[in-house]
Amino acid sequence: MAVGAEARGQVVPFAQVARQTVEQEVRWRQQAGGKAAGALTAAYVAAFGASHPLAKKVGAWPAVFGVAGAVALASWAVADRHV
Q1: Alpha-carbon distance 52 to 70, whole Å?
Q2: C-alpha angle 23-79-44 in degrees, rounded to nearest 5
Q3: Checking CA distances to 1, which of 19, 29, 32, 83 falls within 20 to 30 Å?
C-alpha cells in the first residue's frame, strides 16, 4: 500500500517540474531566440537526468546544487546576460 501512495506523491512534483520547464523555455525563447531556448531546455533536462547518477557518487544535495548551478550559469551566459 505504501508503494502506491509514494508513487501517487511523485505525480505532483513531476507535473510541477514539467510546468516550470515549459515556463522557463518560453522566457528563454523571448530573451535569446528559439535555438538558444532549445539548447538551454536540452541542457536543463540533461542536467536533471544527470543529477540522479551523480547523486550516488557525491550525495543528493551536492549533485542538485552542482547541476542547478551549471544550468543557471549557462542560462545567464546565453539568455540573461544581455537583458
Answers
A1: 15
A2: 55
A3: 19
Residue type, 27: R
Instruction: Tell me the pLDDT tens digit for each residue of 37-80.
Output: 899 889 988 998 899 899 999 999 999 899 999 999 998 999 88
What is the rounded distance in angstroms from the CA atom of residue 26 to the CA atom of residue 32?
A: 10
Contact between 55 and 67 under an 8 Å Cβ cutoff? The reply is no
The label of the residue with cell 549533485 reads 63
Whether pTM exceeds 0.70: no
**Cα–Cα distance, 68 to 48 (Å, whole number):** 8
Segment 10-18 long-range contacts (CB within 8 Å, at least 24 positions apart): 17/48
